[in-house]
Amino acid sequence: MTFDSTFKQLTLAALISSLVACSGDDGAKGEKGDTGAQGPQGEQGVAGSNGENGVDATPNTIAIKFIGRYESGEFDESAAEIVAYDAATEQVFVVNANSGMVDVLDISEPSLPVLVSSLDLGTDIAAALGSVASADALGAANSVAVKNGVVAVAVEASNKQANGYIAFYQADGTFLSAVEAGALPDMVTFSPDGNKVLAANEGEPNGDYSIDPEGSVTVVDISAGVASVTSTNVTHITFTDFNVGGSRENELGNDVRISSKSASVAQDLEPEYIAVSADSQTAWVALQENNALVEIDLADNSISAILGLGYKNHAILGNELDASNKDDSINITNWPVRGLFMPDSIDAYQFGGVNYLITANEGDGREYLTNAADESACTAAGGFDFDDGDCFHYLDEIRLKDIEDTGATVNLDDLARFAPDFDTLAEDENLGRIKIVANMGVSGCDTDTFATTGQPSTGCEYEALYTYGARSFSIWNAETGDLVFDSGSDFERITAQRLGDEFNATNDENGGDDRSDDKGPEPEAIEIAQIGGKTYAFIGLERVGGIMAYDITHPESARFVQYINTRDFSVDIEDLVDGGDFSAVGDLGPESILFIAAEDSPSGVALLVVGNEVSGTTAIFEVNLVSAN
Q: Is this structure's pTM higher than 0.85?
């Protein structure tokens, strides 16, 4: 043992002995000292793992009930399309494309909406902008939105291929300002923070496809106020960088559908609808005919990406459809077709810190035509087909049964699963009536007639069949582009169960199975609402009518809640219209849906407001929270 260690042991022993020797009674407890100064804050610890999802103490759901409507008295004239609401004035703003105005309804008594005024858009815009010669230079209003007492309206030019406008009003109807947008502004919306207004400029070609303006997105900075907005506050986002030879040409995937006839990508892309993230940092734009979505960074108003949406396989379980209007039955079954999603309306919400998009997968083909007296006049005008006054210049759809008449053939690997041969498959009661996307799934054509007429020709061979729309709504992860939910064949199954013989009726006459060969019920309008701690989606079915409600709180496991349809299928619509009073028809052709939260509702009960373009009615529903037990 070293000296040092021996010394330490001895010293320790002496200390212990001393303490033992001093083990007398404890003294009195002293007074508590003052609390010392707080020490510096330590570093933040590592975040713990997420806990398990809680369970509702009282399970609840919603129940929708019709309470009233406003009737414009105009049938099939687009007299009630897009709707918006201002809580302070308790007014609903309704796009009336027939009059070219926006109708203002007082809904202080929601069951009895009353027309109080209309916004004279053409007169106001012409008076404000020297570049507009007169009100006659303006066409129809296409969209309306309201935020913080400000009303924004998208208005097309009378020449639809020219640039349109965005007009701003106070909710009391006072005109504030107007700015120029792109060609055919089809939808307008505010960012949630109220600092920007966005318009989707569709840029459609004219009837003979001789003029095709570029599609674009207009962004208006209104952060300094609307009354002083000028062209210096406007940014037009275009797609020229994605043209052949452009700096971003290689970013455009093959699943972004581009027409063979288009002069450029920028001219072919057609913005339809816009959704904005809750933090106002990102916008998503539906390109319906292109079957794609655009992501826009609103920090610098730039395009982040264009995402093709792909297709839905109707040959697999859960994706069945009724494909014929000539089978005298409801026949929802699998067929060898692929449905392009092609959404019309879209909306956005968050779950678990992730952005999700919901899409109403309506589908839309391209059909461009002019009027002609006869076939020779049509041919002289450059048309390729004449049909009862209509001169077709471009058509990208064809019925399956007509494909072989063009000299094209169909060769499907899985044909034997559905029919013994193509002739059987192409019978009217089977798949023959379905409208196929003419320029997809095809190769080997002797001549490129897709670039002129849109139709196939000799030598074309179809190895896959694509059709328009998916007859459903979908939920997408907005950050990855992944499809996380699709309602499959729900819409047709549910409407078949509820409506029976009126299943897949069209929206301007009663009689079932009319739209099975087209796009079925055609989901068009969509709206998201937060109610009772849950997130709900409301989807309007444009053709058969009615509103579908789904609980989408958990995006990957959305579930059906309710279907409500206020249409009367028992009446003869044509007779009622001819008689001048078609009130008994109910509501036809839902074009838009607006949710009003209970705290903003005049009655204190949450509401849905629906614009119906065919019946020209604005319908109002209560949305009540009820027990799910």
A: yes
